[in-house]
């Protein structure tokens, strides 16, 4: 180590070297920017506001929550994937999960990662928001969320949940709609179930103490419940719908998209690199997350991500259909193509270096 290098600087350089070596085998390519790519389609581009012209070297800082979670923004930052760009995260402190999309919709924060139905509902209500990158991919070995009960609860079948209390991290997201869809398919009267909001990092303890009867817990905290001797896992979202409802994408505020298109491209590029790195190095990713959230490594569940974070329509349409069926969205009010754009993803069109916006 050079004499003037600090331990944190050395650690950062080591992480960057690790990421560079790992990413070398992932085969990331860069895609050309077409005229259509120059702006985000749909609502986020509707204002027609000109892009902000920045001098070389100016830094654009995007406001982002600083939450204890498995999140690509933190990993991309830690691995140095924002280096070489003019864009950096500005962490504004912890933000409760149910508030993330509403705050992105108003511009209080510039980016946020939450489930598709929340974005659809916000968009339908007039929020200036659009999905700009795909997120997690549910695999059998890496579910988005898991369902736990106490071993002595007697709950083993969906019908057993009538009259019981289910804890999940927020209304209006995957835990509510994927679960209700599954339970109705199994003949359960969901009106006889009490649903309450419990943060993921508290869900295991709340279940163990008898305050809930079933806990739906997202990674990385679901791993701790898997190791709890008095709990048993019933299902994962992979068991319920093979992961169709498990994509937690990254959304951005429309004004930020219009004013800082190159910064959006920087963010999406960094997130895609980090996502592919996590897929190629799941154990190294778990170690970094363990350090961040101060959770013993054996309890940290892994994540998997959509390759290159390229958005496809089926996970969007899935939730449009669910929201319409639940009476939360007027039929035909929102089309899937309005909710998302791949215009800022340099990997979306297959391989060449991106042009400057």
UniProtKB/TrEMBL annotation:
Q: InterPro entries from the xrefs?
A: SsuA/THI5 (IPR015168), TAT_signal (IPR006311)
Keyword annotations from UniProtKB, A to Z? Transferase
Task: Report whether Transferase shows up as a keyword of the record.
Answer: yes
Boundaries of each SsuA/THI5-like domain copy?
67-285
- Gene3D superfamilies named in the record: Periplasmic binding protein-like II
Query: GO molecular function, one example?
Result: transferase activity
Give the matching Pfam families. NMT1 (PF09084)
Has keyword Manganese? no
Name of the protein in question: Myristoyl transferase
The upper taxonomy is: Bacteria, Pseudomonadati, Pseudomonadota, Betaproteobacteria, Burkholderiales
